[in-house]
Each structure stands twice: as C-alpha cells, then as structure tokens.
Amino acid sequence: MGDYVGCDSYWYSGDGLMVGWKTVTIDEITELVTKGTTPTSVGYRFTNAGVNFVKIESITKNGFFLLNKFAHIDVDCHESLKRSQLKSGDILFSIAGALGRTAQVSPEILPANTNQALAIIRLQPSTEVMPEFVMRALSSGILIEQIEKQRGGVAQQNLSLTQVKNFQIPLPPLAEQKRIVAILDEAFAGIDAAVANTENNLANARELFESYLDGVFTQKGDGWVKKSVSELAEHCLGKMLDKKKNKGTFKPYLRNLNVRWFDFNLGDVLEMKFEEIEEDRYSARKGDVLICEGGYPGRAAIWPHEETIYFQKALHRVRFKEVLHSQWFLFYLYLSDKNGNLRQYFTGAGIQHFTGQSLKRFVLPIAPNAAMENQLEKFEYLHAETQRLEAIYQQKLESLAELKQSILQKAFAGELTTLPVKIREETAV
Known about the structure:
alpha+beta, 4-stranded antiparallel beta sheet, 12 helices, 23 strands, 21% strand, elongated
C-alpha cells in the first residue's frame, strides 16, 4: 500500500491521518466565532425572570445545562445584546476560568444570551460537518495540549477568539462523523448514568451519617444539658501574618486551607516567624479543635499529632476542659453546618465569618459521660464507614472521567470501531 499503514478497518497515511480525514481549524468550518457581553454594557441589569442568560457555572463538566444556574435578563436587554444572542446548534466554549467547558445550544433554552467568558462557535450551514462531532472534539483531550500552548503559561487565565479560531481538529467524512457520534452518545449515556448513580450513592452515604447524628442530638435523653463553648473550653484566634512586624524563628503553621472536616491537609503547610513567648498562645496540641474563622467558616478538625503546630489568625483553637467534649463538639458542629443551623452564628453580609464572640456563645447539647462515650463510639464507626465508601465512590468517579477521556481520544484518533467491552463493564450500574 506504499505510504499507507493498516489499523483496524481503516488506513492511515504517512502523516498519521486516516484516508478521507483532514485537519481543519475552527475558523475554516465556522461562519461566526464571537463572545457574549454583559447586560451592564448596554445599561441593563439582571432580572429575577425573563430571557435565559448562560454563564460558565450554567454548564456542567459533562456538557449539560443547569437551568437553576441560569441568570435572566428582560426582553429589551436581549434585543440590545445582538452579538450574544444564541441560536440552536451553537457551541459554547469557555475561554475564561474553567477553560474548555463545552455545551451545544438546544431549542429548549432559547431565547438566550451569554457573556464574554463563553465563546459562541456557529458552524457554516453545511451538511458536511456535524455540530455534535465538533462539540465532542472540542471537549476531548486533543485540545489540552493546544490550550496549554495557547495560554502562554500559567499566568494567562483566558483565551482570545483568535486562539479559538486557530484550534485544529481532525475531521472525517460525514458518514464517519455520524458513526463516531452514535458510538460516543451510547458510551456517554452509560457513563453519565454510572456517574449519576455513583454520586447518588455518595450522597446517600453522607445522608445516612448526618441523619444518625441528627436523630441523636434531636432526641437527646435523660440528663442532657445545654452548654455554651465558653462554659466548656477556652479559645483564641491565631497569629496575624505580618512579614514586616513578625519576629522570631520560622515555624510551620496552619491556615484555613489546611483544615478539612475531621482531618488536615498537610501537603501545603507554610512558615512564618514566631517568638518563644508566643508558643503557648499560638500553638495547638493533641486534642485541640481547630476551626475556620473565615473561608469556610465553621469547618473543623481535632489536631491528632503529639507534635504541636502553630496556627494563623484565620483559625480558632478550642481547648476543652474534658477530652470527650472535643469529639462531641466536632460532630455537633459538623451537623450544624450541614443542616444550616450554624449560619445563625455567622457575621458579614458578603464574606462571612465565625467570630470569636459567635464561637463563645455557640450552644451545644451535652449528654452524661456514659451516654456520650457510647454515642461517640457509634459516631466514629459511622464516620469511618462513610469515609471508606466516599473513597470507593470518588475512585469510581475518577475512573469514569478517565474512561470518558480515553474513548474521546480513541474517537478522534480514528481508533473507535465499536463500543469497547470495557465501557460496558465500567458503566454497569
């Protein structure tokens, strides 16, 4: 066959493309590549209802629209924003923030507009290019390398329309586009169903744990009393980070990014200067509770290590008089966060904080020690089991995401002849 190499049921030419395939830029197959704009640019504001306005957060990673994440504008604003009016079949491609998020506009969401964070890709009115094929190509791994090159480094957080126009995708004949899209639709339907099932299982595991906590703390029992944190513990904020004023020796310290629920992320611990006389006030020892003051106010964990650790002003350290109360408080704080009751203690209209004064007056129900020990044993068992299930489900979600990218790469390398057996196995619900 000379310059052609056989692979599956197709033939590849010397340049790596299958016979009948060609490489095209987005600009070559489109009649329009533009981006939206905001209502304020023409003197309007968002409204509570009206014409749909699509933002990046309106689109999922899987390319679906979230109707409850649409903003809205009135009809006059829609008419004024001619450039950002969407048409059925348009492909939206995010060029800022979460780069590469992709979705195809369907008649159900029209009329609609979008903003400058999303490029509008409108194909030429041709029967030789399927919008569904182009959308799948844009969401595949073949663009990752191109995007990284186009971004010009980590500092560049967006793409220009010129860069989008220059994206290259492989384009087979129309019959092959239809065949590939049909296989991808079947594969992704199975993958998306498996993802939904896994996410539902994950939510159920968490709900079961939270439901048990709620039942215990709601029903209470004989001998239960209500106590404020100020009655049970002493607490303080950490040290203010000030490179010019801070003196002493560099020591590792925790900030709110290091504190997760029930655990710590110690992979990114920074250092700042502390003096010896500050150790008692600004360090946590084993059994102390560390709580986020801002960022994710209320999120907390118990320091589990024998070595002490310093902490920044973004965190509260709470040291209970009785050891049991640390764990009891943590579980109740977690429940209060999940059911929304903790919010009554927050301050701030925009960025919210769980201040020292709010923490001081935070009230929790206290059971007698024997009952508390019994329930804590059950809490910890259920929490450990929930974490075990979460690890399994998260791994499943990661595997499904990898599977999706794998099949996309095969599709646009011309290696997808049928739905692989692995996909049927991995997506079995």
